[in-house]
Write a structure and sequence with these properties.
Order of helices and strands: HHHHHHHH
Low-confidence stretches: 1-13, 15-26
Number of strands: 0
Structural class: mainly alpha
Mean pLDDT: 80
Shape: elongated
Distance between the termini: 30 Å
Number of helices: 8
Radius of gyration: 17 Å
């Protein structure tokens, strides 16, 4: 493992398992995901946005919690890890929604506006599957690990 021996790497973290050099470009976070995280955790928007930018830039959660406290508003490490985990879940859900709408457009099918709004508003993966099945679309295949993680979220 490269980097400092004390650097904590979380498998499947936003930045991956290898240290990356920041290119100055951060991963764009959807506004509704950022709003949802702010509501769920009760943190300031700029603190969560800074946290996600640092993690997307390759910083380890432990490093961010210890040495970038001014940017993230003195959040402790367990809180940083919890926000990162929840962000990964919400980001995956948003990508699934986008993929569904792209597939429907590619197939030339039009999604009812009420159904589209309900799909955009849901944050429950099982409810999302039910809604997308209403259009005849197949739900994504899930591995056992993913199903377990969704059950505990």
């Amino acid at each position: 493992m490269r980097g400092a021996p004390w650097a904590l790497r979380i498998p499947g973290s936003i930045s991956g398992n290898h240290r990356q050099h920041s290119t100055g470009k951060s991963k764009m976070v959807a506004k509704n995901v950022l709003d949802r995280l702010c509501d769920e955790f009760g943190e300031k928007r700029e603190h969560i946005a800074s946290l996600l930018d640092l993690l997307a830039g390759g910083a380890a959660p432990l490093f961010v919690a210890r040495y970038r406290k001014e940017a993230i508003g003195e959040m402790p490490l367990p809180r940083v890890l919890e926000i990162e985990r929840r962000f990964r879940f919400l980001d995956l859900l948003e990508r699934r929604k986008e993929r569904f709408f792209e597939d429907q457009a590619r197939a030339g099918k039009e999604v009812d506006s009420a159904l589209a709004e309900e799909i955009r508003a849901t944050y429950d993966p099982l409810h999302l599957d039910d809604l997308t099945r209403a259009t005849g679309a197949k739900p994504p295949r899930r591995r056992k690990e993913r199903r377990r993680s969704e059950e505990h979220t």
